[in-house]
UniProtKB/TrEMBL annotation, chain A:
Signal peptide: none annotated. The lineage of its organism: Bacteria, Bacillati, Actinomycetota, Actinomycetes, Micromonosporales. The keyword Flavoprotein applies. Keywords: FAD, Flavoprotein, Oxidoreductase. The keyword Oxidoreductase applies. It comes from Asanoa iriomotensis. Residues 37-214 form the FAD-binding PCMH-type domain. This is FAD-binding protein. Pfam families: FAD-oxidase_C (PF02913), FAD_binding_4 (PF01565). PROSITE patterns: FAD_PCMH.
Automatic annotation (TrEMBL), chain B:
PANTHER family: D-LACTATE DEHYDROGENASE, GLYCOLATE OXIDASE SUBUNIT GLCE. The keyword Cell membrane does not apply. It comes from Asanoa iriomotensis. The lineage of its organism: Bacteria, Bacillati, Actinomycetota, Actinomycetes, Micromonosporales. Keywords: FAD, Flavoprotein. The keyword Flavoprotein applies. Residues 1-174 form the FAD-binding PCMH-type domain. This is Glycolate oxidase.
Length: 483, 369
């Protein structure tokens, strides 16, 4: 199939209106949420059904053309960055909720449904716990690909703990069901392998999710401390006491200052750290634990513990936390959001290391994070107008990941590897590990057409298994080497 | 070329060099407490004993994580963690099994209701593949999305993809107190209605099981925490015209639930909570242990001449719901319900990539993998 034939075939599948060839229109899709990477695809399709997705992928397979799936494009690692000469498959039209079965605690959705729409569909008695801050826009398909998490994941778990089944179009154009509406169908847990695979193993066209009852009670407090060390120790003491908060979020002095200027929630500017703790669950248990948390905060040195009296006040506490990223624009012209993880107990020391490093680079790093699971989001501030500062900031952001790894952590807790963190993968994983990853990828997509160039640090090809060695065209052309 | 009929590595490295030298089929083995699950191994398969991989490498109480080698006995790990008021929140029926065997079979018990299964608690894994490659995925932190999640792929793979030598685990605090609501309900439809009434409520129960034996049933809902007994009593109010009891000294109830998951022949059923009446109807003379809010049930058949026939009849009655024969797998032709052809082809492809030589337990897994 030549290029022209592919275009015509895709046109027949999705219809004229949903085939985009115009450079202008395609620019909409040149980046995901990480704007420093841009690539215009050769063309984009917006299929309207799972069957159309399958037909598009099958056409690409026949034409030997790579493709990238895209949800809302809110990803922060360049995961949905198009490939040059490739097809972009935009899933926003697949936005139907197919089934709501509350007796069995299940919802079945198409991939383009937004995260927030799932909770809305099962309200008021149920909700869908994984709650990325981008939940109003990001899609369930994107969440599945990234194994997204949110503030409530320390207690409730991540996307992977809530997906029970998927319908997936594989790169050769076949449709398979992995997992199901029920748990534990026999065989390998391909579902576990697919969730978090960043669009490299296929396109999810139908997704079964588990939803859970809304907790009976929610109690929220914010405690202020002189230092992030003190606040970090309070987190450890709370968790050590056997309490699993619904959310436990920390902000440092810089973040408090910026966020308060935007949210006006009365956070005391000048304090070293703010800890937002939310408990939820059965009313009696929640109250008993809340008293304990309040006294732990005081014992760990907080002289200012504020308990929300009503829903409006709770919303205000959260508004400040949620303002943290956008507010940073007020104190710095530009910033990078880093995403790293450390074992929770190392938090206080890691924060000191980050401060030292920021001083060495002469840049400001603001810290806001999901403290329960040690997921840091350092915001590396810089001014792009100052020659070389962006590059220095990027280097600093990378060195923060080195600190995370030295502490026994990870290079990403929720944003994924995408294109952005490929360069860090070899620091976290050895050659044997990466080769094993490649085996999985080859099992799903031996020709490497699904979202190529993502996740793995260097392009790799799949050997034939089983059978005899044949040279891949890319290899022959010297563009890639076999691992 | 090694011709030994068994090897017993004491480290991941030793396992790697042993496997690199072998070319015959191999069969990883822990304590053998679930040895008969899955299909029979090829005659002459070399046993790779994990008993030498017996170290609890690290326990980080502050981080609620542990790193454990595959041969560590499950009970020993729990004892160790318990000293710090923590546990690996899995409570499968335990007959002296190892962590490796637990991961390989993805076995679980009543606590799965609250904490999830093996797949949800393994945060990192080290495996040795048939060519001796050592591969790790995940890490030692509870939140991590770097790289593919091989821990989930190997959980429940029955030793057919490679040898698991070490895992990193997420731990939980032991509950301060527990209490169990027990409700006796003899009608399957009413029992199911009671389950649904409970599962639609935000109870935050530790476990929600049904037991069915001798033509009558019980709903068992376990609570943990300082207010456990009060919450169990509150939950009873959701049920009308039902005999209920709150048991504070409840460990023996749950020990019985666990042990009823093992027997002469045990069929595990994947279904939905609303399928419970159908599961009970299909069970015949088997006792039923159901993780009722999850839809996962275990039918435990008493011994007897026609055991195989009873197992087969129950599975046929439950079809197309997938079933797996655990204990007594040898009684039937195929212990696993085969996945649909497309899914099975993908599973075969995974097997072919991870174990191209077909060394790990060939022919013993789903669809003859
Ligand atoms: C302001 C802001 C806040 C954020 N907060 C959080 C947060 O709290 N937690 C968090 O985890 N993330 C967060 N994110 C990141 C992002 O929202 C998530 O990664 C989200 O899951 C991406 O969804 P999307 O629909 O935008 O996917 P996209 O960005 O379009 O795509 C992401 C990846 O998914 C793949 N993909 C998309 N659809 C499918 C499909 N159907 N099948 C297979 N692959 C598919 C793509 O190929 C790509 O690799 C945030 C982003 C922003 C901009």
């Amino acid at each position: 199939m030549d290029g022209h034939e592919l275009v015509e075939r895709l046109r027949r599948v999705v219809g004229d209106r949903w085939l985009l060839l115009d450079e202008h229109e395609l620019r909409t899709y040149e980046s995901d949420g990480l704007l420093q990477y841009q690539q215009v695809p050769r063309l984009a399709v917006l299929p309207g059904t799972g069957e159309q997705v399958r037909a598009c992928v099958a056409a690409c397979a026949e034409a030997g053309v790579p493709w990238v799936a895209r949800g809302a494009g809110s990803g922060l690692s360049g995961g949905a960055l198009p490939v040059k000469d490739g097809v972009l498959i935009v899933l926003s039209r697949l936005n139907r909720i197919l089934e709501v079965d509350l007796d069995n605690g299940r919802v079945c959705v198409e991939p383009g449904v937004t995260n927030a729409a799932v909770s809305t569909a099962v309200a008021p008695d149920f909700f869908y716990p994984p709650d990325p801050s981008s939940q109003i826009v990001c899609t369930i398909g994107g969440n599945v690909a990234e194994n997204s998490g949110g503030a409530h994941c320390f207690k409730y778990g991540f996307t992977t703990n809530y997906v029970t089944g998927l319908e997936v179009v594989l790169a050769d154009g076949t449709l398979v069901t992995i997992g199901g509406k029920e748990l534990d169908p026999p065989g390998y847990d391909l579902l576990g392998a697919f969730v978090g695979s960043e669009g490299t193993l296929g396109v999810a066209t139908k997704i079964w999710l588990r939803v859970v009852p809304v907790p009976e009670a929610t109690r929220t407090l914010v405690a202020f401390f002189d230092s992030t060390r003190q606040a970090g120790e309070a987190v450890s003491a709370i968790v050590q006491a056997g309490i699993v908060p619904g959310a436990i979020e920390m902000m440092d002095a810089t973040t408090i200052r910026a966020a308060e200027a935007m949210a006006h929630a009365g956070y005391p500017v000048g304090r070293g750290a703010a800890l937002l703790v939310e408990l939820d669950g059965a009313e009696a248990e929640c109250d008993a634990q809340f008293t304990q948390v309040t006294s732990i905060c005081a014992e760990q040195g907080s002289d200012d513990v504020r308990v929300s009296r009503d829903e409006a006040e709770r919303a205000l506490f959260w508004k400040t936390r949620k303002a943290a990223f956008p507010a940073m624009g007020r104190i710095s012209p530009n910033y990078f959001v880093q995403d790293g993880v450390v074992p929770r107990t190392t938090l206080p020391d890691v924060l000191v290391r980050i401060d030292e490093l920021a001083a060495e680079y002469g840049l400001t790093v603001a810290n806001v994070f999901h403290a329960g699971d040690g997921n840091l989001h350092p915001l590396v501030c810089f001014d792009a107008a100052v020659e070389g500062q962006a590059a220095r900031a990027e280097e600093l952001a990378g060195r923060i990941l080195d600190i995370c790894l030295e502490a026994g952590g990870s290079i990403t807790g929720e944003h994924g590897v995408g294109v952005d963190k490929r360069k860090h993968m070899a620091k976290m994983f050895g050659e044997g590990d990466l080769a094993a990853f490649q085996r999985l990828r080859c099992a799903f997509d031996p020709d490497g057409r699904a979202n190529p160039g993502k996740v793995m640090p260097t392009p790799r090809l799949c050997g034939e298994v089983p059978g005899v060695y044949r040279q891949h065209p890319l290899e022959a052309a010297g563009l890639a080497e076999r691992f | 070329m090694t011709t030994a009929s068994a090897v017993r590595p004491a480290s991941t490295e030793e396992a790697a060099s042993a496997l690199a030298e072998l070319s015959s089929p191999v069969r990883p083995l822990g304590a053998g407490s679930r040895a008969e699950w899955g299909g029979p191994d090829a005659p002459g398969a070399v046993t790779v004993h994990t008993g030498g991989l017996d170290r609890i490498v690290a326990h980080n109480p502050g981080d609620f994580t542990a790193i454990v080698q595959a041969g560590v006995p499950f009970a020993e790990l729990q004892r160790h963690l318990g000293r710090e008021g923590q546990w690996l929140a899995l409570d499968p029926p335990d007959r002296g099994g190892t962590i490796g065997g637990l991961v390989a079979t993805a076995d679980s018990g009543p606590a799965r209701h609250r904490y999830g299964g093996v797949r949800d608690l393994v945060i990192g894994i080290t495996v040795v593949l048939s060519d001796g490659t050592v591969a790790r995925s995940g890490g030692t932190v509870i939140k991590n999305v770097a790289g593919y999640d091989l821990g989930k792929l190997f959980a429940g793979s029955y030793g057919t993809l490679g040898l698991v030598t070490q895992v990193a685990l997420r731990l939980h605090p032991l509950p301060a107190r527990t209490a169990t609501l027990v409700a006796a309900i003899a009608d399957p439809a009413a029992l199911t209605a009671a389950v649904l009434a409970m599962s639609r409520h935000p109870l935050e129960a530790m476990a929600l099981d049904v037991s069915w034996a001798g033509g009558t049933g019980r709903l068992l809902v376990r609570f943990g925490g300082v207010t456990a007994a009060a919450r169990a009593a509150d939950a009873a109010k959701l049920l009308h015209d039902v005999d209920t009891d709150v048991v504070v000294d409840d460990e023996s109830i749950w020990a019985a639930q666990r042990s009823a998951q093992r027997g002469p022949a045990v069929v595990k059923v994947s279904a939905l909570p609303t399928d419970l009446p159908a599961v009970i109807a299909a069970a015949g003379d088997a006792t039923v242990v159901s993780r009722a809010a999850l839809g996962v049930s275990y039918l435990c058949f008493p011994a007897g001449d026609d055991l195989a026939a009873r197992v087969t009849a129950a599975r046929a009655a439950l079809a197309p719901r997938p079933t797996v024969v655990l204990d007594g797998a040898r009684l039937v032709e195929g212990p696993w319900t085969a996945p649909d052809p497309g899914t099975l082809a993908l599973m075969r492809s995974v097997k072919a990539r991870f174990d191209p030589a077909g060394m790990f337990r060939p022919g013993t897994y789903v669809g003859g993998i």
